[in-house]
Design brief:
Layout lengths: L16 E4 L8 E5 L11 H4 L5 E8 L5 E8 L4 E8 L6 E3 L27 H6 L15 E5 L4 E11 L2 E2 L5 E2 L2 E12 L10 E4 L7 H7 L6 E6 L5 E5 L11 E3 L10 E9 L2 E12 L6 E3 L1 H15 L5 E2 L9 E3 L17 E5 L6 E4 L1 H4 E3 L5 E3 L1 E3 L9 E3 L1 H4 L3 E4 L9
Parallel strand pairs: 2-27, 5-12, 6-11, 17-26, 18-25
Antiparallel strand pairs: 1-15, 1-27, 2-13, 3-4, 3-14, 4-5, 6-12, 7-8, 8-11, 9-10, 13-14, 16-17, 16-21, 19-20, 20-24, 21-22, 23-24
Length: 414
């Protein structure tokens, strides 16, 4: 659904530990784990596979594409679907080959149901109905879903289940049966065009997430990681075999009774290494949001600091640039961040409850060079997107991070 401001759905609670470490070639990896022990002894081959990982190639970029996507196979025989990666929502869905509104994909890119509906009595049906009126008078009725996104997008459809062929890193090929949405009414009212993908890969922390389902089937641990290149592509993995052996810094995740978003805090903001007075920030990490959004007051403070620091430097406002809200230009088109990097100071997010844990954002981590040769601020006003006091760290900044979290094994930290 877009260059998204934020995809927020209501989910379940878990306590996570979170770490950040800079990546080398791929300037960003995100990984999160909501791990819970398997009860009882492993008695099936599936249980023995817990700890395996699955890798996927990632395509896309923050600008000008506006999203990152992977291809997943669904069905038997399998059919490939390109899905927009979103750590900010739970439900994975694809556009449905059914009487359809807002479905723009060619017929060969749509999913055709095969009498594989999930009944409304299913616990997964109830999980995706959190915050809505859950009615299931007839247990065998189909499970309808509706996901509302804060970027003014939505998907309406039916919950189905089908085989998801997966090649594990140990070489085995599995075909777990996973529940997902078949969307027949997609809407998007936001200011940007939605991504040209067949649907959404929901990687949140809730019960309906593909991660949670793989964990419950005993296939992988509930761990997701992605590494995004600055230019294009990267990779995504499910599973827990790829924690780096060193260089890990941890910060606790927030615990909430109604939220499985990847959220940490409180944090304070520094500009040029100096305190800004902005403290107590609660942050949501969301690969589904192309840009980073701060609450209106925080955003305005950041903008004021940047504008003040640019005073007397050879940059002028570029109101004609439509790519983003705030842009600047020089006498000649800007070809690289290196051309204007010295005009901007770094931003730093300092996690208060974790000792010596900071996320350093160099100018190239929060600025974007457009195709017209202007430089734009990749941080936007969340208040204008209806996000209220939420502060969303989007793909452009998650892009320069390597982030893991784990409930079971904080001892992984050296």
């Amino acid at each position: 659904m877009e260059k998204k401001s934020k995809r927020i759905v209501s989910l379940v609670t878990m306590m996570l530990l979170f770490f950040i470490v800079m990546a080398a070639n791929f300037r960003g990896c995100f990984s999160a784990a909501s791990q819970t022990p398997i009860k009882g002894k492993p008695t099936t081959p599936a249980n023995d596979r817990v700890g395996s990982s699955v890798f996927f190639r990632v395509t896309g970029n923050v600008y000008p594409t506006g999203h990152y996507s992977v291809i997943l196979n669904i069905g038997n025989p399998p059919k490939a679907f390109d899905l927009d990666i979103d750590t900010g929502s739970d439900l994975t869905w694809v556009q449905c080959d059914a009487p359809c509104k807002g479905c723009t994909k060619p017929l060969d890119k749509l999913y055709k149901p095969k009498n594989n509906r999930v009944p409304c009595a299913s616990s997964l049906c109830q999980a995706i109905s959190t915050g809505q009126n859950y009615n299931c008078d007839i247990p065998t009725e189909q499970c309808d879903y509706e996901v509302q996104y804060a970027d003014l997008g939505s998907s309406l459809g039916v919950l189905l289940s089908d085989y998801f062929p997966l090649r594990l890193n140990n070489g085995s090929l599995l075909q777990p049966r996973i529940a997902f949405g078949c969307g027949y009414d997609q809407k998007y009212l936001g200011p940007h065009s939605p991504p040209d993908t067949a649907g959404i890969l929901g990687l949140g922390r809730g019960k309906a997430s593909i991660l949670s389902q793989l964990r419950n089937l005993g296939i992988t641990q509930n761990v997701v990681g992605h590494c995004f290149s600055r230019v294009t592509g990267g990779f995504l993995f499910f599973g827990d075999h790829h924690f780096p052996p060193s260089g890990i810094t941890w910060t606790p995740m927030r615990r909430s009774s109604s939220d499985t978003l990847y959220s940490s805090g409180p944090a304070e903001l520094l500009f040029g290494g100096k305190p800004t007075g902005i403290k107590g920030l609660q942050l949501i990490f969301d690969s589904g949001s192309s840009y980073t959004y701060f609450s209106a007051q925080v955003y305005q403070s950041i903008l004021n600091l940047v504008r003040k620091d640019l005073s007397g430097k050879p940059l002028r406002d570029a109101p004609e640039e439509k790519a983003l809200a705030v842009c600047w230009k020089t006498a000649k088109p800007i070809k690289s961040i290196l051309d204007i990097k010295s005009f901007f100071k770094p931003l730093t997010i300092n996690f208060i409850k974790a000792k010596n844990v900071q996320l350093q954002l160099a100018p190239e981590d929060y600025l974007i060079i457009t195709k017209d040769g202007n430089v734009c601020l990749g941080i936007l006003n969340g208040g204008e997107q209806g996000l209220g006091n939420l502060n969303v760290i989007g793909a452009w900044i998650v892009n320069i991070m390597k982030v893991f979290s784990s409930l079971m094994r904080p001892t992984l930290v050296s």
